Fold this protein.
Amino acid sequence: MSATYEYSSLLVSSHAPFRRKDPKKKIACENHILSDQQSVKHINKYTMKLSGLALVAAVAAGNYGANAFAFTGSNAVRTMSPTTSAVCSAEESSTALMGRRRKGKKRVWGKVDFKEQATVGGYNPDITESEVRSLFSLWNDALATGDSKIVANRYANTAILLPTVSDVPRTDFDSIKDYFDSFLLKKPQGEILEGEIRIGDGWCQDAGIYEFTMGATGDKVKARYTYVYVYENGQWKIAHHHSSIMPEGIDVAKPITEGEVRGLFQLWNAALDTGDSATVANRYAKAGVLLPTVSDIPRTDYDSIKDYFDSFLLKKPQGEILESNVIVGTNWCQDAGIYEFTMGATGDKVKGRYSFIYMLEDGQWKIAHHHSSVMPEAQLAASSAAKSSTPAPIADDE
């Protein structure tokens, strides 16, 4: 059986619905299906008629008359336009008649195709850099409403949000709304400080640094941002939003052992040994707090801490830890227990309770908090004894 005969049969059978709709153009197809023994000349007579039918069928199928076929022998000529033509096989021609995927239309499995998503609505709209920047204002205005649904609606159907203060990627409306349920309690309003804009075919990007003012507290927070926008259902929407804190403001964790924590006390003790109150005060952090043993006044800055040691160092104290309990955290550590001082000026020994909290500041471990107190049981016993030895007042009649 020839290729021409096979293809003619294919056209007749594949367009049967059309023949039923327009019986006058059947061209007696069922009555002229040729047998294997009929001549090629006879085949060509009817396939020429069928090529006209194929043109009408192609238009009806939505191919806009782009594919019409005529056959000579075993080859088929496809007319693309009045001025161009190409030779193709019967199998290829059949594929064209059955519907060819439009150019630029990609099938995407398991990921977002920005070009396909951007053409929803029928065209790729033009956008200027200033219009791209104004898309941030739409999002910022949505924040100002305090309504998490309105904010979440600024994101595309298949958007991804990597938020500033959550480890969880948000990949759908509900999870994006959930993030803003919490974030909007801070009453944030953003401002772009610097940004770079890129514009593509149906998409655009804005990336840089923004700053938020939290209306609930007055705090200001800088962060880095990336927005990728796509055109979806007649609007520019956020397809991707990545926000992150400024990394240089993050202290990299510095490991410290328990032995090294106890060694920090020795640095402080050595500073006492110098007799220089400025050297001792420099062992404290910039915002350090000292609650001293023999003063009721909290010391919360360099000058007040130095003032305390101006007096205390006159006793020539040297300390020794008797009991210690160490806790190590991320860029902080704590040492708490009991220490004893020997006063070089008098030879007296005094026990006290202590708490040191150290923090990493400018690459050094400094005292952020120092609380020192006398041993309370001895104080309470002395106070109780003093009360019992006090004579009772004499009554008037005595």
Residues 1-51, 54-112, 114-122 have pLDDT under 50 and may be disordered. The radius of gyration is 43 Å.
